[in-house]
Amino acid sequence: MFERLYEEYKSKRITADEAAALVKNGYKISFGANNTMARDIDIALSKRVKELEGVTIYSKLNPMTKPFATFEANIKDSTPEEFNKRVRFVSAHFGPQDRRMNKEGGCWFVPMLFNEYPSYMRDIIKPDIVFIQVGPMDTHGNFYYGPSIAGTTGEVEGAKTLVVEVNHSMPRAHGFKMTIPLSKVDYIVKGSGEPLPDWPPVTDIDEKDKKIAGLISPLIEDESTLQLGIGSLPTAIGQALVDSDLNEIYCHTEVITDPYVDLFEAGKLHGNKYADEGKIVYSSVTGSRRVYEFVEDNPICAVAPIDYINNYTVISNIDRFISVNSCLCTDLYGQISSESIGYQHISGTGGQLDFVLGAYASKGGKSFICAHSVRELKDGRRISNIDPILAPGTIVSTPRAAVHYFATEYGVVNLKAKSTYERAEALIGLAHPDFREDLIKEAEKMGIWTNTSKTTY
Questions:
Q1: H/E element holding 303?
Q2: Residue ranges of domains in the chain, CATH in brackets
Q3: Is 221 considered catalytic here?
């Protein structure tokens, strides 16, 4: 049997340059998501930039320390008129490199509920070619995605042509729906074998983060299932739980990060005995090398596609589900923005809304959205992160009706079932004291203060 598989494998082998040569003008192509991104084929495609026209490249959370090589070559070798006529980039979730490409004018965002991403790729976009990085084929003829699946299953299912770039450094992870049979693969490229890029652990946790964590962690019970976002605030929550009296925490999360490893090493993180087939479940790794080492060949961990992990029906059926995410700003209506400040695009929606909806519907569940009360500009000025109304262009990531708990270093409030004046009053109480009087005056004009509902603008 293996002899037959080996012959089929050999017949599909091509070089990275030959894979790049498959791309034709007008093609929609995908380079996978997070750690499934095919890096060597990207470098090969960058050599063809001058030949290309009307090519769209899809990605999700580029983990690399620099933008796509194809983007770098395009910006170097194209006139402003040629730049976006040759190659355009589209991202399902803005990471640091996507933001840089966006600022250069060559990367756009696809608004979405993140659990729907696989269906977008499978049923609507249907890429002409999908290039993804995988682990080596096993003796049964299966390639493995590795520890980051996210929405890549939808890309593979929707691909007209599938090219895998084999990375022998890819960690082997246990999980659900995570293999690709050789019969589904059109071409195979031997990759250079570079280790996956890691994300340095968050270390810039300040006193505001610790204070917010101190407010939220007492509201989390034993045998809760935890979803943490990315950044200093969710990391502070994880550290607070390590130091807490809790004994048993479970994990069902879009991204598994360093705080989960801290919880496991503290003896607090366990496989969920009530759900997820008793596993620690995640969709991708967004952490340091120790997170890769934790999930590699670890039978208690299971990686799964994003349409399972972020499905709010799945989440809602897990009791005591706790979701913790940070945001950029909110307004006095309770509208949350985690994506932009004004017209400046900063991040994607990610799974925030998926988890906010699912956690509230969970029996005993809670979702928390957190922010510092102020941010400091480069010129030293302080700006309130609680505004009367969101600035023009600011994207609403979580609508006011969906928000459960909101927290700053000045407190945490449950916004469910609160009227507009109760919301305004509660949120002003979480603002920095220097801004509260001005916020009250604006709330009066907006007709959402305690003395009147009449708008005076």
A1: strand 301-303
A2: 2-190 (3.40.1080.10), 207-446 (3.40.1080.20)
A3: no
